[in-house]
Amino acid sequence: MAQAWPRIGRMTQARSLTWRALIAVGLMVGFYALALSIALFLVWVPYAEVRYLSRIDFRLALFCLIGAFIIVRATAPRPDRFTPPGPALTPDRHPRLLAEIAQTARALDQAMPAEVYLVPDANAWVAQRGGVMGIGSRRIMGVGLTLLQALKVSELRAVIAHEFGHYHGGDVKLGPWIYKTREALIRTVVGLARHSGLLMKPFEWYARLFFRVTHAVSRHQEREADVLAARLAGPAALARGLVATHRAALAFPAYWTSEVGPVLEAGFLPPVVAGFARFCDEPRIASDLARATEAEMQEGKANPYDTHPSLRDRLAALGQVPPEPGPPSDPPALSLLESVPALEGLLFATLTKGKAGALRPVSWEEVGQAVLLPRWIAFLEEHGHELRGVTPSALAGLDWVARGRELARSIGGEPPVEPLAQFAVGAAVAVLLARQGFVLEAPPGAPVLLTRGATRVPAFGLRAWLADAAGAEEWRRLCLEAGIADVDLGLAARGRAEPAPSAPRAGSSS
């Protein structure tokens, strides 16, 4: 059940909103005045040359007219063509989550967003979309699926209250104007950079001023939204929500790039939310996240171009350094959604414009065999010849640097040679062991292991395993038992268990 909150109503905010609006409007007017003035001057130059000097320099005229055209085109208002960022969440399908959002809206005397969308990242946001420069727009809200996995219900309430604080403070009404002006400034600078560095300079200077000042306004808006959320949901719940959101935002890009992306590219759809939980709970990842979050809480600083205050400043303002622990009975925010697996399918169908239906569902336990092994075999088919002459039993004496250099030449570019050699050798050994009945385990964030019974082989940890005599001896014994001791790793992708030549190539040990 949704927690009953006191009604706060509309707080006195006219003075704060007025000065923010004046700053934003003044800077926007200044930009368009600057753009119009320079464009008119550029058009006037060839006219003045004809009118007062009775001549025309066609190169100068072309330079001026092209410059004026770039400025006018870049600054012209554009309609906001809105594309849904994910599936819409409706009260009939997700009554508990929408009830929480509606309760916050009532407590703040605000209208509900026209649409609430489920989005893939670890974030929540509100905006005005559609129309031109905010005129004719509507309220929308986005709630991240992985954010719901990272938060407890009390923390989600505080985060939603913070987002409604932007509606309450009028921030989203200013937002479209500021965002459109930022976009126009960027278009102008980029366009003029290709035409003339001299013409670009005034806009580059103004862009720095505009971003610095409006981002300071954004940080002020974030602080006010925090104050409102703390009054409504409590400072401790908001602080825990901010920390959990920061932690999830740190983890999500790495999770998406290293774990989810390769699976999607291979044509499979893994359980994204469950995988994110496993990724964040993996001891190595959890330790890294804890250190990074603790450092941000203790030492974080916002620079003049940040749109949000630092986590440290936000927690200090709430008097929550560190945040008070939450109640043990606090349920996960994900429990407010119905049928998470079905929602994941809808989310990816939206993101891929309906092509997600071609993705085959796959569990994380199946990813190793279904996704990674085929990728490694493809890699070895193209570059595995650089491992010719290398055998599993001789890896203890392998010159990893020399072998990595040969692989780097084969691949092109400048990849780090030792990690490249470790990857190629690990992939080849994994392919060989998989053919001998080993199972490839690749949980999100965890080391890739090959297992058979009680035997566990770290696919990409072989070099560390072989660093001492006991590990090297254990590896030789395992290779003999698995029947791969003298197999040429250069032929691993071809499925041929041929012995390596007696004279190894440079880069391997005798």
Helix content: 55-70%
Structural class: mainly alpha
Q: Order of strands across the widest beta sheet?
A: 1-3-2
Unreliable residue runs? 9-14, 496-510
What can you see in these coordinates?
By secondary structure, the chain is mainly α. The chain contains 17 helices and eight strands. Helix 7 packs across helix 8 (235-265) and helix 13 crosses helix 15.
Mind sketching the topology for me?
Blueprint lengths: L13 H40 L4 H18 L19 H13 L7 E5 L4 E6 L8 E7 H6 L2 H16 L2 H25 L1 H37 L1 H31 L2 E2 L2 H10 L1 H17 L11 H8 L21 H12 L8 E2 L2 H20 L16 H12 L5 H19 L3 E3 L7 E4 L2 E4 L3 H4 L3 H14 L28
Parallel strand pairs: 1-3, 4-5
Antiparallel strand pairs: 2-3, 6-7, 7-8
Helix pairs in contact: 1-2, 1-6, 1-7, 2-6, 3-5, 5-7, 5-8, 6-7, 7-8, 8-9, 8-10, 8-11, 10-11, 13-15, 14-15
Using brief descriptors, characterize the structure shown.
3-stranded mixed sheet; mainly alpha; 510 residues; 59% helix; 3-stranded antiparallel sheet; disordered C terminus
Give a quick summary of the entry.
The protein is mainly α and 510 residues long. It is 59% helix and 6% strand. Helix 5 (153-168) packs across helix 7.
